[in-house]
Design brief:
Blueprint (H helix, E strand, L loop, with lengths): L4 H20 L5 H14 L4 H29 L5 H25 L1 H21 L13 H18 L4 H10 L4 H25 L11 E2 L2 E2 H24 L3 H24 L1
Antiparallel strand pairs: 1-2
Helix pairs in contact: 1-2, 1-9, 2-3, 3-5, 3-8, 3-9, 4-6, 4-8, 5-10, 7-8
Length: about 270
Amino acid sequence: MIEWLPIVLALLFTGVVAGILAGLLGVGGGIVIVPVLYFIFQGLGINADTAMSIATGTSLLTIIPTSISSIRAHHQRGNIDLDIIKLWSPFIILGVVAGSIFATRAGGGVASAVFGCVALLVAANMLFRASAAPMQEKMPNNIVQAIFASIVGAISVVMGIGGGTLGVPLLSAFNTAAHRAVGTAAVFGLVIAAPGALLMLTLASTPTDAPAGTIGFANIYGFALIVPLTILTAPLGVKIGSSLDSAKLKRVFAVFLAISASRMIYQSFFS
């Protein structure tokens, strides 16, 4: 049992960091959970493709309770734009269904490459556009927003992340206030994770080399260790974020993200 202690501690620490970041930066806990689980599972001797598939499915499962906790905290502060939620949600779900079918058929290697490439773009956005002015003063027409929503849903579910990582910079680019973008993207996370996790549990066959406690592409043990701490710490992140300028914190996180993404890309293409 003692050999499992470092893994258990790593998962618990992941839960704390993911919860705080979900509330603080609006990036979604999955952007932390996926790479950590990916490397932990490989440390257990699991094939890289399998590790990525299970990291993705497990992350989506953990995002459900985390996003609910974050949504409650943001709702109390009036940070959620219901008009955007009503327009975007059906198209996000459409993207999630398409992305889930693609992810379960393409395999973990493709998912890790997608994660790495998109994560590098997200890191670059955080590093160089943390305080950038909006591209436009208002949201585009409904057709363009529907396209954006479908893309956010599809890419997010393939990566195993919530709506914040892509949703926050997208909403901010169209002059949505920072805290309102974070709160609205928290709802995106639930809209993505709930159907996405269900599809990862039911569409996918459990890999033969999956760790114990895995159903489909989701590991229940990892979920059980991470979730309690993400629920507890997500409101703390919201509270901290309401009183701090997050630009510097985003840049620090971007460095971590860039390193993790680069390693995942290297494994996808060169190993």
